[in-house]
Amino acid sequence: MDRTGFIYFDKIMACFIHADLDAFYASVEQIDHPEYRDKPVIVGGLPGDRRSVVSTASYEARKFGVHSAMPLAQAVKLCPQGVYLRGNMARYREVSDRIMGLFAAFSPTVQQLSIDEAFLDITGAEGLFGPPELLAKKLKAAIREETGLTVSVGIACNKYIAKIASGMSKPDGLRYIPPGGEEEFMRPLPVTRIWGAGEKTQEIFRKHNLGTCEDIRRISREALISLFGEALGLFLYRAVRGEAAAAFDEERGTHSMSAERTFAYDLGDTFALESVLMDICEGLMWRVLEGRWQSRTISLKLRYGDFSTESARETSETPVTTLNCLYDRLVALFRRKYQAGRGLRLIGAGLMNLERADLPQQTELFDNGNEKERRLEKAILEINKKFPNAALRRSRSKLGER
Predict the structure, then answer these.
(1) One of 117, 182, 282, 377 is an active-site residue; which one?
(2) 45-98 pLDDT, tens per residue?
(3) Is 117 marked active-site?
(4) CATH architecture entry for 185-248
(5) 265 or 127, higher pLDDT
(6) Domain extents in the chain
(7) Residue 17: which of 186, 144, 155 has the closest Cα?
(8) Fewest CB atoms less than 10 Å from the CB: which of 6, 31, 82, 277?
(9) Up-side HSE of residue 121: CA atoms within 13 Å toward CB?
């Protein structure tokens, strides 16, 4: 048996497990407010809020046709009796951090994709927790006992299949794809299940009457490349055969890394936005240190309440070496680009054109404190890796101080 695998959890992933928390924001509200339980809860805004959209709808609300990204006004028409909330992002982050800590107790390698989903590499964990399905059941039970929340889980020998399997197990389910069964799993699926095939690609599918993965599997590699272009054509060729779709997953991450936060409602407070940016910087910097990367190019993404999106990037002569350095550069770019007073639906940041950190670099004539900070941040990283519940962090009050 090939022991490589991931679990994917449906919104909060690895042998691989993919784990995804079910209706995360709404579920947290139902746990915190027992009077909301068994009621249709819609997080994203209050009736009458202009330009608001649904961030998360509970499964009770989904029975009325309410779903994420739907204009709030339409949700109110479909479900006037719903419980409408603007949301509490700080609370959702707190719960997410607890759950990620639980994940770390089952695997030393947790790849968080968003606030409510992650991949877990459980390779070799059978000696501690038993077979993958038993491990996943223990993990689901631990999350329910600790937080009261449910998580949907997919297990497969590559992250791509685990991700799709978790989505098909919602809510509160578990789907295991045994080694060698990946292609058989994919063949009957509708093309809408192909993770990474967006709306424009779906339009091409409809135009050519491609309704299932089996329909695509019958097309030769050369024909797929001719129809969709080389990158997407090769991706589809591999995806419908149940292979790890690296073109839209791991390979992309070796050249850049990014993270973003989507808010339950439009956020226009500058201090709050810069605090969120600090959290993003922290996560990025730990990934840089752990992967031994370096970059001279930062990127910023701003999406406003009307869904207009602005992106910017900036390249410096010297690479980013510390959290302080990354935060300084991104905040300066943010203050130049952000249109003050306008509410943001999403903010994101990233590092582009990653290089190995062991490449030779021109050193600075005088020590400006970066080396000391770099050693400190590496020490914090090592402590958090050994003791996941320690959750050591840099204070924002210390960032920007020289």
Answers:
(1) 117
(2) 899 876 677 889 999 999 999 998 788 889 999 999 999 998 888 898 899 889
(3) yes
(4) Orthogonal Bundle (1.10)
(5) 127
(6) 1-180, 185-248, 254-374
(7) 155
(8) 31
(9) 6
